[in-house]
Amino acid sequence: MLRYVEDHEEIAYQYAHALVTFFTIDLGAPEALQLTRNIITESTNDIRNFEEEEVASRIDVALRRLIDRVEADLAD
Fold first, then answer.
1. Core vs surface per residue 41-59: b (16+ CB within 10 A) or e
2. Is the Cβ–Cβ distance between 66 and 12 less than 8 Å?
3. Terminal-residue alpha carbon distance, the chain
4. What is the per-residue pLDDT for 11?
5. How many H helices and E strands in the chain?
6. Are 33 and 71 in contact (CB under 8 A)?
7. DSSP letter (8 states) at residue 34
8. CB contact at 8 A, 58 and 4
9. What is the pLDDT along the chain (76 residues), one digit of tens a residue?
10. Contacts of 10 (CB under 8 A, 6+ apart)
11. What CA–CA distance (Å, rounded) separates 68 from 22?
12. DSSP assignment, residue 27?
């Protein structure tokens, strides 16, 4: 997952943007972004059970950066 985000950041961004956009159908943008962040947190917690802490932390940072970028784009 991390390699995909690192190697294909633009595609990963498009997926993140699509996810947030999908959630905004039923939620406002702030709630959709928070839900997406919650999903990232839960996923990263699960990854910590199978991978080293360093790997999980790198994944968490990369995914949160993507969501921050989506948030910035939605604010424009």
1. eeebeebeeebeeeebebb
2. yes
3. 28
4. 84
5. 4, 0
6. yes
7. H
8. no
9. 556 666 777 888 888 888 888 998 889 888 988 888 888 778 777 777 877 778 778 877 888 888 888 889 888 7
10. none
11. 17
12. S
Nearest to 30 by CA among 70, 59, 3, 2: 70
Q: Do 63 and 44 meet the contact criterion of CB atoms below 8 Å apart?
A: yes
CA distance 23 to 55: 28
Query: Is there a contact between 69 and 60 (Cβ–Cβ < 8 Å)?
Result: no
Query: For residue 29, what are its two tokens?
Result: 């943008």
CA dihedral (55, 47, 3, 58) positive or negative: negative
